[in-house]
Amino acid sequence: MLCDTVKKGVECGFMTKKGCGFFGNSCHPVIEQCGDCNKIFEYEIGRYCKVYPDPKSKWMTGNCPTASHVKIEIKEAQKTNPLKASKRASKK
Question: Which candidate among 9, 10, 66, 81 keeps its CA 20 to 30 Å from the CA of 74?
Fold first, then answer.
């Protein structure tokens, strides 16, 4: 259904005939950590995430999974000695 609370005219999975079914009966605005994410939209009331109705909950355990402005650091895997690896494989 189309939202009629915060994101007027946008398709919303929480909207029912009785109104918004999300906690607090509406979406929550973005927080500081969302920063310059490209998933933020300006609405009449303020800035809201188009993916998550409560962005604060996505930042509680670390980075938001869809944050476009956060660079993920990939740790380099531990290097193995090919000679030792072949010896281990031959023992099995």
Answer: 81
Structure tokens at 45: 């009331």
Extract the tokens encoding 85. 């690896």
Closest Cα partner for 15 from 27, 5, 1? 1
Q: How far apart are CA 83 and CA 85, in angstroms?
A: 5
Taking CA atoms, 69 is separated from 19, 21, 65, 83, in Å, by 33, 30, 11, 42
Q: Which two tokens stand for residue 70?
A: 């956060």
pLDDT of residue 53: 85
Both tokens of residue 88? 């281990």
**Is the confidence at residue 72, as pLDDT, over 80?**
no
CA distance 66 to 52: 9
Query: Tokens in use for 25?
Result: 């009966």
pLDDT, residue 41, reads: 85
